[in-house]
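Morning. Coffee machine broken again, so started the prediction first thing and wrote up yesterday's gels while waiting. Chain of 217 residues, entered below exactly as on the submission form.
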Amino acid sequence: MKKGIGYLAIAILTVTVAIFLGQHSVEFFMSTFSEENQSMGFLGYMLTGGGFFLWLIIFLWMSPKQHERVVSLSMMIVCLVGELATAIFNMYTKTMLDAGFAMTEGDIKTMYMLVGVLAVAHAISLIIKFAGQQIYQAFQDDDSDGIPNVFDRHDNRHDRNRQNQQGKQQNQPQRPQQPVRVFESDGQKPQEAPQTGQGKAQGAEQGKDTAHPTNGQ
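Came back before lunch.
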């Protein structure tokens, strides 16, 4: 029962903080768009608080590789910082407007820069998440010729393998060819198959020491 009460306390605290910061974050994004695009406020929230929970799920269940875990964890931090920044900035502007102060040009630029940074961070993270391994491999130099793989049209490893195979074939000792005797069916003397090079010389030496059988024996 105590553990269940503890989980309930964590859930209530999480929902309370998410609603409190999320409301200010949504108002911040709504203030950056016109009245016709008020729905953009909820979409903008997915760049901050909503994105934090989504990247948390990706980190826990969809990040088997090391670079994916790094990206997911980094984006959780980015979303959390973005949620705090948008909520605090919205509270600041609301307080200033209620006190009779108008937003300055610098405040407006800060709002747009913050939205742009969050959007770019999410875009880069998604690219690394789904294509990070391929990007890393593209800029490697597998054949060690100083040219990245993405710009290298010729793989020098094939040339080195071909040269090694040719070198092994040249270093292998050549076996001398033995004379091949062909016997005819009528009992005539054996005939040697035509040979070339060293095989002829060896065949001649062997023929001197070998007595040929005569007819009738």
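Residues 128 and 134 are 9 Å apart (CA to CA). Going to sketch it on the whiteboard this afternoon.
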